[in-house]
């Protein structure tokens, strides 16, 4: 460590020299030269990397440290590749802990390196995390402050410019600052691509569910649900609909912080009478009113999806899975909640896809008879699920009301009065329990990923 | 134009409207505040406005805690309204009689983008209007195809070749507004409240054109933009509906004189009968509209000032040609 920090001090000096005389302008971030020479680039690379590692105050043998090796490879033509990432992680996910999260110091720490936000060379891309329809996501590191980031690189088709999903996602996220909404750090717009720089979060609920099959610890379900609803409550209060809730889009940090992500389908519903798409939300998580072709939907749309996620966490399997079209999906839902009628849902027969003769008759069932896990839990759990999976959107519980539901009364009371940006894990006593089942560590009771975390944070 | 400019000079020098920050997004608020400039600086013309604006933001960012405002200079509002005296834009609005891409909220957003982009008055152009309007449609409308109609109006006959460049310009505008394309309803309403009776703020979209209306999208299979040379399609849903009601509404909201002669600046019914025509409406009509629009602006400038309370003394004296209108989330 000694040696490392000395090295870093030197590095700092080197960088100050590199960006000669620009220190005064650091604040304003103006008049930066655009490009630096390639050679310098490479050096800076290493520096920033080492610096970032040192700033974590992690012991060298710490979980995080083995994630990267800083040996630059001469054979790689592009500077992005100068850092090699060794991929011997056992679990993708929470083992590669973010060095700066949860630490009290790092936020104050900034480099005097002259790098600025909004430019490509301020970030170093480490490894590809995923590939989507119009974007690739990379794990990266900020050369400005050493934080780990997720870089969502959106390729631009020459004809279409920036996809509207990206315009919406970035525009909406720019205005959202909440502990349970993924944080958009920066936007880099070049001719060929648009890169959204997000905070790095280790895993997502889908992976977490895979890793811990058969349903999650009921305490953890409560903690995740509280955060999901807290995030929804926040965006709904700003009249933003997420419109694509599903486990894949709920990020989970090593601590168990849950964050809403992927706002590509999200939109603001602040302005009245704009046009809406009915092609929203992955089929399994789409509410019955939208499936029935309702022309108007609002925040209740996301609440249905949240209810589905709730069941999925308890059961370890999706609530209404395995279908490929709207009518099958409706039928799946009706087998649990019963086919709605004009009595139970005034106006339902007016909806375009309401075809009572197409639906097999079914009566509403007790949820605990459908989802067995509810049998083992106090009644209030089932009650909240019931209120979220209410077919008529007007009767569905809101995010705000669901946070006040008795289901959450066992959580420490201060959790209800946090500022938007404060994580619930700041409240004493809020910790994730160890999941009973873990496919990566079948024989162990304690998730190894939490051990170093407990030491450091 | 001279006439109404001079009448505006007599208005109270400045107005500050504070908006409660609760519904607003904090980032926008802070930035908004910083858009307020000393008038001296404004008079010199704003070189690199967006740059200087950003610089100031960064410096004050952590300290700002005042409620959100944006300062709207009177010339800016006037310049924006002047766009609606442009024959092509008027025809474009008239063609969109269902307000599918030019309803009042989208038009208010367009203005908010002009502000966020720190456009100089010289940049209040037809082209920028179409670009910003397209961006507003991109943000707000899930029905993607309606906005393509903007291409032929903005780009002319060759729009098929030129639209990629147009989209690049939209992206550029998006960058210039610092990627903040989300505009709240409240913000739109504050903008409209400045001259509430202006004809563009009467452009309400009817309910049957909102919501998730995929069903009747196939009514018109070939959804190619029609452009200025073709007549608008008859809208079966709107055909002779609520438009008529807007006439009386409009004249009652505007104070005094002009109400009597107020032919609706976008008169849909005289033309709905001529929908079969292949040509755009004659120019004469357009210029007639222009006159009314201008008059109306002049008139409302004073009434809008009267109902607002001057509070911000820093904005200058009575001779100050600017007036701060503030409306922002």
TrEMBL record, chain A:
The record's annotation in Gene3D superfamilies points to: Phosphorylase Kinase, domain 1, Transferase(Phosphotransferase) domain 1
Which residues are noted in the entry as ATP-binding? 152
Provide any one GO MF term from the record.
Answer: ATP binding
Report if keyword Nucleotide-binding is assigned.
yes
For the keyword Kinase, the answer is yes
* Catalytic activity, EC: 2.7.11.22
Tell me the Pfam families matching this sequence.
Pkinase
Where are the stretches annotated Disordered?
Answer: 20-77
* Top EC class for this record: transferase
GO cellular component entries: cytosol; nucleus
Q: Where is the composition biased (Polar residues)?
A: 66-77
Q: Which PROSITE patterns match?
A: PROTEIN_KINASE_ATP, PROTEIN_KINASE_DOM, PROTEIN_KINASE_ST
Q: Which reaction is this enzyme known to catalyze?
A: L-seryl-[protein] + ATP = O-phospho-L-seryl-[protein] + ADP + H(+); L-threonyl-[protein] + ATP = O-phospho-L-threonyl-[protein] + ADP + H(+)
Chain ranges of the Protein kinase domain: 123-408
- Membership in a protein family: Belongs to the protein kinase superfamily. CMGC Ser/Thr protein kinase family. CDC2/CDKX subfamily.
What is the protein's given name? cyclin-dependent kinase
From TrEMBL, chain B:
> Is this entry keyworded Cell cycle?
yes
Offer one Pfam family short name for this entry. Answer: Spy1
Q: Where is this region: Disordered?
A: 35-59, 246-329
Molecular function GO labels: protein kinase binding
- Asked whether the keyword Signal is assigned, the reply is no
Mind listing the UniProt keywords for this protein, alphabetically? Cell cycle
Q: Which family does it belong to?
A: Belongs to the Speedy/Ringo family.
Report the protein name in the record. Answer: Speedy protein A
Species for this entry: Scomber scombrus
Q: What is the lineage of its organism?
A: Eukaryota, Metazoa, Chordata, Craniata, Vertebrata
């Amino acid at each position: 460590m000694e040696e490392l920090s000395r090295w870093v001090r030197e590095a700092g000096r080197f960088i100050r020299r590199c960006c000669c005389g620009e220190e005064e302008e650091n604040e304003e971030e103006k008049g930066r030269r655009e490009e630096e020479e390639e050679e310098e680039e490479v050096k800076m690379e290493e520096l920033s990397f080492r610096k970032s590692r040192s700033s974590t105050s992690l012991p060298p043998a710490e979980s995080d440290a083995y994630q990267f090796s800083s040996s630059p490879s001469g054979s790689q033509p592009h500077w992005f590749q100068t850092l090699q990432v060794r991929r011997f992680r056992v679990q993708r996910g929470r083992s590669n802990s973010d060095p700066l999260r949860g630490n009290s110091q790092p936020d104050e720490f900034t480099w005097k390196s002259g790098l600025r936000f909004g430019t490509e060379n301020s970030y170093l891309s480490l490894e590809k995390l995923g590939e989507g329809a119009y974007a690739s996501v990379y794990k990266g590191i900020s050369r400005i402050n050493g934080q780990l980031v997720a870089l969502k690189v959106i390729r631009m088709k020459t004809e279409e410019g920036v996809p509207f999903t990206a315009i919406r996602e970035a525009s909406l996220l720019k205005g959202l600052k909440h502990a349970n909404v993924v944080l958009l750090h920066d936007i880099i717009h070049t001719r060929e691509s648009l890169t959204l720089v997000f905070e790095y979060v280790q895993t997502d609920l889908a992976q977490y569910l895979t890793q811990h099959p058969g349903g999650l610890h009921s305490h953890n379900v409560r903690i995740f649900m509280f955060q999901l609803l807290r995030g929804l409550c926040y965006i709904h209060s700003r009249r933003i609909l997420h419109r694509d809730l599903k486990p894949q889009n709920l990020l989970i940090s090593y601590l168990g912080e849950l964050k809403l992500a992927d706002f590509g389908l999200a939109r603001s519903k602040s302005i009245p009478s704009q046009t809406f798409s009915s092609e929203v939300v992955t089929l399994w998580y789409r509410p019955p009113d939208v499936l029935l072709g309702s022309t108007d939907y609002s925040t209740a749309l996301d609440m249905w999806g949240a209810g589905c996620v709730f069941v999925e966490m308890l059961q370890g399997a999706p609530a209404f899975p395995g279908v490929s079209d709207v009518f099958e999906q409706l039928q799946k839902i009706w087998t649990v909640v019963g086919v709605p009628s004009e009595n139970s849902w005034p106006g339902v027969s007016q909806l375009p896809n309401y075809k009572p003769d197409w639906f097999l008759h079914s009566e509403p069932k007790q949820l605990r008879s459908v989802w067995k896990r509810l049998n083992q839990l106090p009644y209030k759990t089932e009650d909240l699920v019931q209120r979220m999976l209410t077919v008529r959107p007007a009767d569905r519980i809101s995010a705000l009301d669901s946070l006040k539901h008795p289901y959450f009364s066992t959580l420490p009371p201060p959790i209800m009065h946090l500022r938007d940006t404060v994580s619930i894990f700041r409240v004493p006593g809020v910790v994730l329990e160890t999941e009973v089942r873990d496919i990566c560590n079948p024989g162990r009771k304690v998730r190894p990923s939490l051990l170093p975390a407990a030491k450091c944070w | 134009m001279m006439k109404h400019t001079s009448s505006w000079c007599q208005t109270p020098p400045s107005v500050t409207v504070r908006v409660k920050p609760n519904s607003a997004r904090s980032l926008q608020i802070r930035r908004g505040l910083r858009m307020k400039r000393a008038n001296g600086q404004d008079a010199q013309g704003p070189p690199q406005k967006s740059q200087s604006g950003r610089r100031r933001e960064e410096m004050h960012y952590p300290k700002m805690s005042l409620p959100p405002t944006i300062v709207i200079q009177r010339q800016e509002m006037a310049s924006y309204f002047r766009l609606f005296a442009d024959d092509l834009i008027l025809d474009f609005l008239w063609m969109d009689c269902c307000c599918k891409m030019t309803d009042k909220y989208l038009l208010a957003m367009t203005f908010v983008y002009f502000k966020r982009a720190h456009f100089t008055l010289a940049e209040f152009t037809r082209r920028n209007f179409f670009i910003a309007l397209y961006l507003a449609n991109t943000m707000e409308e899930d029905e993607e195809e309606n906005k393509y109609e903007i291409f032929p109006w903005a780009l002319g006959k060759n729009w098929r070749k030129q639209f990629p460049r147009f989209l690049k310009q939209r992206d550029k505008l998006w960058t210039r507004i610092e990627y903040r394309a989300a505009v709240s309803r409240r913000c739109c309403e504050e903008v409209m409240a400045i001259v509430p009776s202006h004809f563009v703020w009467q452009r309400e979209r009817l309910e049957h054109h909102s919501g998730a209306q995929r069903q009747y999208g196939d009514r018109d299979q070939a959804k190619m933009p029609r452009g200025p040379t073709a007549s608008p399609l008859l809208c079966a849903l709107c055909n002779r509906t609520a438009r008529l009601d807007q006439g009386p509404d409009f004249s009652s909201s505007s104070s005094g004189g002009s109400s009597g002669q107020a032919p609706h600046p976008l008169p849909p019914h005289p033309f709905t009968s001529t929908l079969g025509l292949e040509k755009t409406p004659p120019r004469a009509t357009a210029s007639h509209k222009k006159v009314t629009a201008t008059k109306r602006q002049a008139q409302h400038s004073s009434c809008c000032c009267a109902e607002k309370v001057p509070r911000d003394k820093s904005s200058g004296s009575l001779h100050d040609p600017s007036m701060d209108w503030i409306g922002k989330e």
